[in-house]
Amino acid sequence: MQADQTIRRIALAYSGGLDTSVMIPWLRAKYGSEVVAVVADVGQPEDFDAVQAKALATGATACEVVDLKEEFAADYLFPALRAGAIYEGRYMLGTALARPLIAKAQVEAALAHGCDALAHGCTGKGNDQVRFEVTYRTLAPDLGIVAPWREWDLRSREDEIAYAEAHGISISVTPEKPFSIDENLWHRSIEGGVLENPAVPPPEEIFQMTVDPAAAPDEPELVEISFERGLPTALDGAVLSPAALIEQLNQIAGSHGIGRVDIVESRLVGMKSRGVYETPAGTVLRAALRDLEALTLDHATAAFKEQVAIRYGELVYQGLWHSSLREALDAFIESSHRTVTGTVSVRLCKGSALAVGRCSPFTLYREDLATFGKDGVYDQEDAAGFIRLWGLPSEVRARVQAGPMHGRVMPGAAEPAAESGRDGPWAGRTRVGEAAGAR
Ligand code: ARG
Description:
Among the domains are: 9-69 and 91-177, HUPs (Rossmann fold, 3-Layer(aba) Sandwich); 188-297 and 337-366, Argininosuccinate synthetase, chain A, domain 2 (Alpha-Beta Complex), CATH 3.90.1260. Helix content is 39%, strand content 18%. The chain has 14 helices and 14 strands. The chain has helices spanning 18-31, 48-57, 69-83, 94-112, 128-139, 148-151, 157-166, 242-255, 280-296, 299-317, 324-336, 367-370, 382-390, 392-402, and strands at 9-13, 34-41, 62-67, 117-119, 144-146, 180-183, 188-191, 221-228, 231-235, 238-239, 260-266, 272-278, 342-349, 352-359. Strand 1, helix 1 (18-31) and strand 2 form a beta-alpha-beta unit. The longest helix is centred in the N-terminal third of the chain and has 19 residues, at 94-112. The relative contact order is 0.11. Residues 415-422 and 433-439 have low confidence and may be disordered. Residues 95-96, 127-128, 180, 182, 189, 191, 275 line the site of arginine. Arginine binds next to helix 4, strand 6 and strand 7.
């Protein structure tokens, strides 16, 4: 944002941490504007009254705490789960899915408070700045955007604290965390510190949602997940709101050490980064849903959905949640998943979540067709003709490559003439290499 542009009131996405706390006096000094702090509750464990008090004590004109948990679960997490969205095969997108919702709530608060600009606490090296700002531009293209991390010359924690004190603001500083952590209903993400060396295994103390799988109970636990049209509706038969279902399943799955991921990922802004994630409920729900899809989707639809899932995961990671492609992909998934209704039993044990039983009113599985026992519906003789046609392209290619006939015969065809084979099934054909021009 140009410093000479007049900004009267800025809505800041506020977390209560040191960075966004220092941003309140910094924005006021730099732009001579008021600051409205917007706090998004997406399920992170936090004392929101304390966060609000801190924002006001640090110089915010107002502080809005918005409870987004149910909207997050119902409108972001579950549709992404249904789509199979996952980034680079492993990351379940907990942070990437929260940003577009937090930014939307921030835009709504900004408009309600008559703000003329939006600010966030993301650095200039990460994906989150992109996700916030793409959402701002999509939902409120006329509001200005300020990214203090890209503008200020504060380089360290000490710089930040000194800046606040110089501006007459005392900030209650919590002990420095050795990691960059982002946490919500769906996951915890841990980056930085010793994790910046990708060769170093994650220290056990960074985990909070999951126990060490090796220390998890030896006794397996079965949970039953019910879905309607590809969206989770009940846990062990109890119908729950989306956020409540995730919260309860997080506890159960976390106690079995399920949902840890340790990856090197490709950031949107060019570099590789190392991230460690805990997504306990999400991991169980994904295992259950994939299993139910196997029961209720035909092969072609399921295979195409796998393509959609990859693209969906990429666009979420890349900050394009609020986009026409995402809506179009959701329309496909909504249609493909009309029959993905049913219940899956998942066995949880020492870090693994394995589907072990499934049923659906729309099951495509028919025991009378599949049985090894005697059946009255499937005529095994049909298989012979099917296989001849199914294998025909392979057979044709093999014969062409082998030269004329090789003394072999297509099943059911006339006997070839003994020598050339030219009178057999290939009579009158030009061989590859004999075509005009190839000679
Ligand atoms: N690398 C993950 C992502 O881009 C997590 C980012 C976590 N953000 C944070 N501020 N620590 O989605």
